[in-house]
Amino acid sequence: MYTKDLFMKSRIVNQKIKVLRNKLGISQTMMAERLGISQNAFSKIELGQIDLTLNRLYKIADVLEVDVLDLVRIEEPS
């Protein structure tokens, strides 16, 4: 159960990254260039096929102009 819960929370973070990137009008290619990785690698991040390191998460937050906590904060339903 814990693993499934962690997976679902991870997917939420990946989706937040994609939504924020699109909101700013940044393509996957541009995002990848700013992060110093390939477009394919960034696509896999958004799809949840690559686990994010803390360092990479901070870099993504910086490019998206948000606090890293905004990416990882998961609102629990009340």
Structure overview:
The chain is mainly alpha-helical. It has one domain (2-72): 434 Repressor (Amino-terminal Domain), CATH 1.10.260.40. Helix content is 68%, strand content 0%. The protein has five helices and no strands. Helix 2 packs across helix 3. It is globular. The two termini are 20 Å apart.
Which residues form runs of ≥5 with pLDDT under 50? none
The overall pLDDT, averaged over residues, is: 90
Q: Count every helix, treating DSSP H or I runs of 4 or more residues as helices.
A: 5
* Radius of gyration, taken over Cα atoms and rounded to an integer in Å: 12 Å
CATH architectural type: Orthogonal Bundle
In total, how many beta strands? 0
Write a brief caption for the model.
The chain is an all-alpha fold and 78 residues long. It has helices at residues 2-23, 28-35, 39-46, 54-63, 68-72.
Task: Please describe the topology of this protein.
Layout: H1 2-23, H2 28-35, H3 39-46, H4 54-63, H5 68-72
Helix pairs in contact: 2-3
